[in-house]
Amino acid sequence: MPGTPPTRFVFLGPEGTFAEQALNSIPAAERGSRTSARSVPEALESVRAGEADAALVPLENSIGGAIGVTLDELAEGEPLVITREVVLPVEFVLAARPGTTLPRIRGVAAHPQASNQCRGWLRAHLPDAVVVDVLSNGAAAAGAATGEYDAAICAPIGAGRHRLDVLADKIADHSDAVTRFALVSRPGPPPPPTGDDVTSLAIYIAHDRVGALLSVLMELAVRGVNMSRIESRPTGETLGRYVFFLDCAGHVADVRLGEALQGLRRVCADVRFLGSYPRHRLPGMGDRPIPAPPGLSDADYADAAAWLACLRTGDLT
């Protein structure tokens, strides 16, 4: 039933990863069932098939950029919508079985993205250790727990789950790195506006038309809609054909954004609505959204609409 809170959650596994840590921050997930999936497509397909109410998957990382497979899955197949975002600080730790010391470490298990984000620390503290690529942070912790590897670079939740000692914490080269996760559900009424929302879209432009992308940007700019992100992904049809992913400030219920969506519908080959949802702001991420320019607030739009209605009825007072 639309509007019913989700009770069955799936997340990108395995257990002991940042995705599980992000899911734990959602109150409804603490009371519901939680299942790990082997991949982003598997997680989202379980929602499409009705086997889960919502899936938590990574959307982008402040160091590595957008998660291509997630964008591709949202742009294709049966429609899904984002109902919530979770922004999680990425704090890697070096963990090992109790009794292990740094001088005894010869092999370190790590997901390639994790080891890439900790290169400076590894070079300074474990210059002779061999870094072994594994499929996930959770798999790295599990391998260290069984003794397959001397140590692991993993999420704090992974070290705790596998009863590993944390030999060093916050070892990432960029201390302010974050990963943005999306909670994805089947289509239904979006969460109500909060005044600080994000609307995500996938748009297909007309490739045989000069200035097609500029027309898209103008539909937003003339209404004072701030675009916080734009990404392009190949459609797979032919070389040079792309789908563009946009994050815009505002909610589908807002007058300004609503008019912009109507404009995009007119000028684009296709528009896929990916959801309107509250922005997740971590401490230190900034203040409230920048106000609309003069003449472009929702109040201004309402006043203009009322004025036009009067003109159409002959009321010029």
Order of helices and strands: EHHEHEEHEEEHHEHEHEEEHEEHEH
| Uncertain residue segments | none
Largest sheet: 6 strands, mixed
Mean pLDDT, as a whole number? 89
Into which percent range does the helicity of residues fall?
Answer: 25-40%
Bin the strand percentage. Answer: 25-35%
Shape: elongated
Radius of gyration: 23 Å
Number of β-strand runs:
15
Q: Span from first to last CA? A: 47 Å
Per DSSP, the total helix count is 11
Structural class: alpha/beta
Q: What does it look like?
A:
By secondary structure, the protein is α/β, with parallel strands linked by helices. Helix content is about 30%, strand content about 30%. Strands 1, 2, 3, 4, 5 and 11 form a six-stranded mixed beta sheet that branches. Strands 8-7-9-6-10 form a five-stranded mixed beta sheet. The chain has a four-stranded antiparallel beta sheet with strand order 13-14-12-15, with helices on both faces. A hairpin with a 7-residue loop joins strand 13 and strand 14. About 40% of the residues are buried. The model has no long low-confidence stretch (mean pLDDT about 90).
How do you describe this structure in short?
The chain contains eleven helices and 15 strands. It is an alpha/beta fold.
How would you summarize the topology of this molecule?
Elements: E1 8-12, H1 18-23, H2 27-31, E2 33-37, H3 40-48, E3 54-61, E4 65-66, H4 68-75, E5 81-89, E6 93-96, E7 107-110, H5 112-117, H6 119-125, E8 130-133, H7 137-146, E9 151-154, H8 156-161, E10 165-169, E11 178-185, E12 197-204, H9 212-221, E13 227-234, E14 242-249, H10 255-267, E15 270-278, H11 298-313
Parallel strand pairs: 1-2, 1-3, 7-8, 7-9
Antiparallel strand pairs: 3-4, 3-11, 5-11, 6-9, 6-10, 12-14, 12-15, 13-14
Helix pairs in contact: 9-10
